[in-house]
Amino acid sequence: MYVENKNVPLTDLGGGVVRKVLAYSENLMNVELKFEKGAIGAKHSHPHEQIGYIISGSLLFQEEGREDKVLVTGDSYYVEPDVVHGVVALEETMLLDIFTPMRKDFVE
Fold it and tell me: Which residues contact 105 (CB under 8 A, 6 or more apart)?
């Protein structure tokens, strides 16, 4: 399987955030997210494990029970299932998020 990014539609999540669901199976999914400066990824939780990679830009990463942390291009993060987390884009930022299992709510 392969996915050409140019052929994947954007989903406008509002508030300066857009998402592209890239390759996925029942067990694994990768998702590209773009945030305008100041855009907020509202605090939330989900039953999936998540690893994120900052492709470009910087953000304030917020995770329940931990101090907020500024992450920049090249940094990554891991979120355990059901942990409340969110982000604030400190500048225009692009992320790659990987989930296991896949996020059915992103494709239904």
Answer: none
Task: Return the amino acid letter for 41.
Answer: G
53-86 pLDDT, tens digit per residue, is: 999 999 999 999 999 999 999 999 999 999 999 9
pLDDT of residue 108 exceeding 90: no
CB 76 within 8 A of CB 34: no
Helical (H) or strand (E) element with 35: strand 29-35
80, 100 contact by CB (below 8 A): no
How many helices (H) and strands (E) the chain has is answered by 0, 10
Cα 18 from Cα 37, distance rounded (Å): 13
The model's pTM: 0.93
Cis upstream peptide for 81 (omega within 30°) = no
